[in-house]
Amino acid sequence: MAPARVYEGGCLCGYIRYRTEGQPVFPHLCSCRMCRRWSGAPTVAWVEFPMDEIDWCGPGGEPQLFRSSARTQRGSCPLCGTGLCAVDDGYANVSITIGSLDRPNLIVPDARHSHARTRPKWWEARVMHSGNGGG
Question: By the number of CB atoms within 10 A of the CB, which of 2, 51, 78, 131 ranks highest?
Fold first, then answer.
């Protein structure tokens, strides 16, 4: 049996770090209003891992949580503000921002795009026709 792949990541300043060998689940994009406002980006790339398999191993421990809706809390670094995760009440997985992974190329979002209708109108034309996506 092949060894489990290790996924590590963290915030911009390094205060909040995480590590998991859990199986990634549901890699997808989301353009809902909450994701856009929380991240400051038109779309967030997410992947889920079992919550009990995430080790918050940085000096800051777990991210600071903010209740963004009736059932969801979003986790960020209290020092630099990097958005790291979302936790839904009663759900066994934690959603991690793919952009916070040290090696984001290890996980590619599939074709699922939650709230694709609410992404900016320029998003699809720009992404689909920009070649390599620039810098």
Answer: 51
Helix spans in 11-121 (H): 33-39
**Cα distance between residue 97 and residue 66, in whole Å:** 16
Give this prediction's pTM. 0.84
Say what the pLDDT of residue 79 is: 98
Q: What is the spatial order of strands in the sheet that 25-30 belongs to?
A: 64-67, 72-76, 83-88, 93-97, 44-50, 25-30, 113-114
Closest CA to 51 of 30, 22, 76: 22
Query: What DSSP string runs through 10-72?
Result: E-SSSSSEEEE-SPPEEEEEE--HHHHHHHSSS-EEEEEEEGGGEEE-STT-SPEEEE-SSSE
- The end-to-end CA distance of the chain, in Å, is 38
